[in-house]
Design brief:
Largest sheet: 6 strands, mixed
Helix content: 40-55%
Strand content: 5-15%
Radius of gyration: 18 Å
Order of helices and strands: HEHEHEHHEHEEHHH
Strand order of the largest sheet: 3-2-1-4-6-5
Number of domains: 1
Oligomer: single chain
Mean pLDDT: 94
Low-confidence stretches: none
Number of helices: 9
CATH architecture: 3-Layer(aba) Sandwich
Number of strands: 6
């Protein structure tokens, strides 16, 4: 047993318990982009189910966007090793967003299409719970993006029920920092599929990530304070009921 993974699973379990993410008998689909966040999420959820008092099962699913050079064969092999069913669905999302629509804000449309595709895919399989790899830093960045770009105090929720599709989204990594995730994914030698999206380093989120990094040099606990404020206000869905 990897001690670091065992310790990390404690962080994930705390989030799962605080926000009541898992119910008995859940079939949970883990959304796999191939990046470090989703791959570690899959590994830790697989570990968690070996000792968590509420039984649940896992499947893994990838919505392939259509970028050239992305090979998900290592992800399939990793899932086979864990005994987790894996589905990789090819789509033309990249072609629609970048080549046909030529969107000025491609991230928004891409995200919407990916959500629709994955929700349709899992519900066709009779699965109604989806685990996503959004983490602590993602939550803080999303809060700041809403504040600075939209003038709203808002963020995604740790648990979100989508009434249109009947899918409940859970985010078990919300207490885990990006740096810790990256370090553990490297230590475990998880198979990472690099993202060739041209917007990866030019998006509004990347701007906020750099801004927070700069501000954190003077205020090292800035992100922790923002995250704590989100829970204490609390933002809708962020209050801990115990």
């Amino acid at each position: 047993m990897n001690n670091a993974l065992n310790e990390f699973s404690g962080t994930v379990r705390r989030a799962v318990d605080d926000y009541h993410m898992i119910s008995e008998g859940d079939r949970i689909a883990v959304g796999i982009s191939g990046g470090k966040d989703s791959m570690l999420l899959l590994a830790v959820m697989n570990h968690l189910r070996t000792y968590y008092p509420i039984p649940f099962s896992l499947e893994a699913i990838t919505i392939e966007l259509g970028f050239e050079g992305m090979d998900f064969t290592p992800v399939q092999q990793f899932c086979d090793e864990l005994g987790i069913p894996y589905t990789c669905l090819k789509t033309d999302i990249k072609e629609i967003v970048f080549d046909v629509r030529k969107e000025d804000n491609p991230c928004s449309l891409c995200s919407k299409m990916r959500r629709g595709a994955i929700n349709d895919a899992i519900t066709q399989r009779g699965i109604h719970k989806l685990a996503l790899g959004h983490h602590f830093d993602d939550a803080v960045e999303t809060f700041m993006m809403s504040l600075l770009f939209e003038g709203r105090i808002s963020c995604f929720r740790p648990v979100t029920f989508l009434d249109r599709s009947g899918v409940t989204q859970i985010r078990p990594l919300v207490y885990a920092g990006e740096k810790k995730i990256a370090n553990l994914a490297a230590e475990l030698q998880l198979p990472i599929v690099e993202n060739p999206c041209p917007e990866d380093k030019t998006s509004k989120r990347y701007e906020i990530k750099k801004l927070l990094a700069q501000m954190s040099q003077d205020y090292p606990d800035l992100k922790s304070k923002i995250f704590g404020a989100m829970q204490r206000m609390p933002l809708p869905g962020w209050g801990i009921t115990g």
